[in-house]
């Protein structure tokens, strides 16, 4: 079954700051991960899920696969737009596709991040194929996009 994504992406605007760059002023690869996490947390909050609240309920969304393709460098001071699409697909996987767009409207990088929902309990961590109703509904709303 192919992933199904909304036409309307989740958006996050950022500025590449000194702490995001290496000694040459180029955005450091680890900063991409931080921005991806912020984009996910931001979108989750817009569909009514606080990541802290989810964690307090005993659930987590660990990354199980991550791919980033770097096309052109990002530099200190540049404006950046992250466009993210979400697919719940089949099974327990939540897939995020994100484009990193420079202020010149040029695609600088793109990524694919897969997460799964797990429940923490006394015996360890259990992979969930379906979460509780409020989390499942939020995942569907994520897939629909912000519109």
Throw out a few tags for this protein:
Thiol Ester Dehydrase, Chain A, 147 residues, 8 strands, globular, alpha+beta
Q: What is this entry, summarized?
A:
The protein has three helices and eight strands, in the order E-H-H-E-E-E-E-E-E-E-H. It is of the alpha+beta class. It has a single domain, classed as Roll (Thiol Ester Dehydrase, Chain A), CATH 3.10.129.
User: Given the C-alpha coordinates, what overall shape results?
Assistant: globular
CATH topology: Thiol Ester Dehydrase, Chain A
Are there runs of 5+ residues with pLDDT below 50, and where?
A: none
What is the second-level CATH architecture?
Roll
What fraction of the residues are assigned to beta strands by DSSP? 35-45%
Instruction: Round the mean pLDDT to the nearest integer and report it.
Output: 92
Number of helices: 3
Number of strands: 8
Structure overview:
- By secondary structure, the protein is α+β, with helices and mostly antiparallel strands.
- The chain has a single domain (10-144), classed as Roll (Thiol Ester Dehydrase, Chain A).
- Helix content is 24%, strand content 36%.
- The chain has helices at residues 29-46, 51-56, 133-144; strands at 10-15, 59-60, 63-70, 79-87, 93-102, 107-116, 118-121, 124-127.
- The chain has a 5-stranded antiparallel beta sheet. Strands 2-7-8 form a 3-stranded antiparallel beta sheet.
- The longest helix is centred in the first third of the chain and has 18 residues, at 29-46.
- The radius of gyration is 16 Å and the shape is globular.
- The protein starts with 9 loop residues before the first strand and ends with a helix.
- The model has no long low-confidence stretch (mean pLDDT 92).
